[in-house]
């Protein structure tokens, strides 16, 4: 079977870390390496945006992106580049980033990973379907542009983003709280499933007591 990009579906290896007990009411997905590949659009835009904002070239050369949050990446780049990590500089940087990431997404040959669209369809069609949300290190607007480019943004009712916190564990807590507000209940940890492709995704899921599912589609596997 081929996906929407005409590629052959590989076997996606996944493992549930926690025993399944009781109903799942909220499923939270990472984006990059889990739902979609953007051909490195975010990483390319980060480097170019830092140079555009502060005149510092090659700022991403020694930075590891997998599982990181946008705000923590910006802080590390500032440290390496000798730039003050202020709210004003962060706003300037991300204004350039959002302008540049669009062009890199448009130029990439990325898209949803094989099986993602079908999986989302099947989850939505389940009796007592769980709410679908995002748990990502992207800033919200960056997430919207990445998923919107492939028609996936409107599939998700809520999300935790780097705008919520620099720490991914606290982003997970924010996403869980938003899920409870959306469902008008207080969610227990095992009622939530966190899906991601890096150890950091699994760690933040465990932080909120959620069940966790690791997928072998990203660079960490």
Structure notes:
The radius of gyration is 17 Å and the shape is globular. Helix 7 links the parallel strand 7 and strand 8. It is an alpha/beta fold and 221 residues long. The chain contains seven helices and eight strands. It has two domains: 130 residues, HAD superfamily/HAD-like (Rossmann fold, 3-Layer(aba) Sandwich); 67 residues.
Give the DSSP E fraction (strand runs of 2 or more residues).
Answer: 5-15%
Rounded average pLDDT: 89
What is the spatial order of strands in the main beta sheet? 1-8-7-2-5-6
Overall number of strands: 8
Q: Note poorly predicted spans.
A: 1-19
Number of helices: 7
CATH fold naming of the largest domain? Rossmann fold
Describe the main β-sheet briefly: 6 strands, mixed
Shape: globular
Task: Supply Rg.
Answer: 17 Å
Q: What's the CATH H-level superfamily name of the largest domain?
A: HAD superfamily/HAD-like
Structural class: alpha/beta
How many angstroms does the end-to-end distance come to? 23 Å
What would CATH call the architecture of the largest domain? 3-Layer(aba) Sandwich
Number of domains: 2
Instruction: Indicate the percent of residues in helices.
Output: 40-55%
CATH class group of the largest domain: Alpha Beta
Encode the helix/strand succession as letters.
EEEHHHEHEHEHEHE
